[in-house]
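Hey team,

Filing this mostly as a record. A colleague (T.K.) asked me to run one chain through the structure pipeline before their review meeting, and I want the input and output archived in the tracker in case anyone asks later how it was produced. No errors, nothing strange. Just documentation.

Input sequence:
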Amino acid sequence: MSLAPISDAQLVPGLIAAALDIADTTGTDLIAGTAAAMGTRSVLLVLDNFEHVLAAGQVIPELLAACPGLAVLATSRTPLRLSSEYLLPVPTLSVPDRHHAYAREEIEQYEAVQLFLSRARAACGEFALTDGNTASVIDICSKLNGLPLAIELAAARLRMLAPEALLERMQPGLPLLSSSAQDVPTRLRTMRDAVAWSYDLLSPDQQVLLRRLSVFAGGFSLTAAEHVCLDDMPGTDALEALSALFDHSLIRRSDQDGADPRFEMLYVVREFALEQLIRAGEEAPMRRAHARYFRRLADQAALARGADQERMHALIALEMNNIRAVLAWALRDSRETEDPRRGLAAAWEPQDLDDALDLCGTLWFFWLHYSTTPGEARLWLTRALEVAPVRVSVARARALLGLGALEWRQGDYAPAHLHLDESAALFTQLDDLRGLADAFHLVGHVLFEGRDHAGARVFYERSLDAHTRLNDPVGGVPLVGDLGMVGYHTGDYASARRQFEACLRLCREHGVRDHEADSFNRLGDLARLEGDLDAAQRLYSESLSLWRNVHGLPGIASCLHKLGQTARARGDFAEGRRLILESLNIQRDISNKQGLLECLLALAGLAVETAPPEQVAELFGASEAAYEALGAPIAPADLADSEHDRARAAAALPERTWRVARERGRGRSLVEALALAESLADTPRTDETGGRTDVPSKLSPREVEVVRLLARGLSNREIAANLTISEKTASNHLEHIMTKLDLRSRAQVAVWAVRHGVSSQQS
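Output structure:
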């Protein structure tokens, strides 16, 4: 993982978490999460360019202590100064001795010469060693100490200079870049000198462009370079100017190319160019030009709809390192970034803070639905709100809205409600009806997750009314589906179906693909609740395909979980486990507590089939405690199965043993419970005779319950009444049961139940 684009040490723990596929967090949660996620696995974590975030080094010994299988390889220009650190200097390329006579084929065995020849041929075609140039090539490689970057930059000069002329230009030596450069190791001084030498060979306009490009972090597009760096240089062709820098090996093409060509700088080149920018007194104006460009980009993404929205959000994701650079500059702490080279030109301006707040507020929708680092997003929003002047502004209202939205997504409902209320109050003062519509919508979500369905309905209807007054039918589309969710969770399934189907029609009419995906997902829930597993699988699969197309991670994770539950209901436990674990990994990435709990509950159900009963009891205890702490509801389609799973697990143990184990589980953290669930879900269990203790796994828990009641002589209507489902759903379950068991009548099912001990099982 490269840390080159990052300047804030506080971001490093969250990025480490993302690299290890665990929840985006910091501090002790990162330590516990990493230990649980790794288990006994051996993992090598590579952290590149650590020298400029050394303050983050304190987390490494804690990680190593908690994770015996973890090894960390950090590249850094300076030691991290940790007690567990082993220093390994990176050797330079092998270089021939200038004072030794070699055959030509011997010289070509040296690594430095091989690289020089490779880059020389890339620069000017059929370059080869000759009697006339061999000594010069050896001297060049030797003078550059075998450093790859320096050799690459030198070889690029062969477009203009023969090796002999190149060596002559190098002979006088080059001035070091700063008064402190004498303290830099020789190899690093040589690299900096090589970059300086290449810089000196540029025309004045090319030098201006190179140093201005240093404000970009993580690469830049042709369009971005043109708008940020060349606005005051009319008549300059951006592609031609960048091509010149490319020919000098000072920039390179990015492997993330799209329709707009993309380039990047090596870290050492960018560092040098930034020093030149500071010396020229241009840093502050270029930083602000850089910020203006990415604020415009964020504004365009916020206004985009349909396919344009997907394209813009993909572009925002690509430019996230540049957005981090904008925010780091605008929110910089003068106590930490004092640099006499910068002088007054880099002093704070009040507008910097307002601009950062505006950018954070504009990005809230992207961060909520498409970011894999919501914890980092919350950090930026919190910092911007803390340091920006407190005033009644759209920027502050949006930032509060975004912070509340992310807190809601991550299950922190109390602060979410507080910040969303603040946001709504500001939007009311500003007479901003669109902002108020968004705030009402999100308050509805928070109330819904807190099981206040009546309150949620009120705020959803307020938001829908605001969109109607704005003549914004597209903005109102998701609220139709959300009102359906209120019906779904309060048992009004007919109303829920009407709302979901209406939402689906509106989505198709207006091209709103993300909420179209949501509608298929919710209709799948109704089908699963009714026992129509074929329809459920089809609807969930349609939803998953749409979510993948728009890169909506929360939606993808939700569909995978529900497809896993559907597979489990069909008796395909291996596929169910695979899908649920895939969902779990994404839920960890986006730190979605509600999604993590859904996966825990599903894995607990799988463990009933395979794992020791006391550990299964612990999982149910942990799940109960976590749901109580979050205050969120269990979806109806999951609730029936989870209640039956829990009853089966309890029936497998004496009451006191079940109670003690369940209480033990309630003391587990969510991280610990998930680690246990993952380890148990695929553990085979046998009884004393070596056979399975549970009924044949062809049937889902709900289907087993239907068989048990049928064996007692109950009719479909009576089964439906016992299970609080419709008679049609009971009939569907029975049809699926007979298909799975290859039976033709209710009587045959009853006989099967007796033979397999189902009729005597407790519910």
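Quick notes for T.K.: Confidence is low (pLDDT under 50) at residues 173-184, 334-341, 684-695. The CA atoms of residues 411 and 629 lie 10 Å apart.
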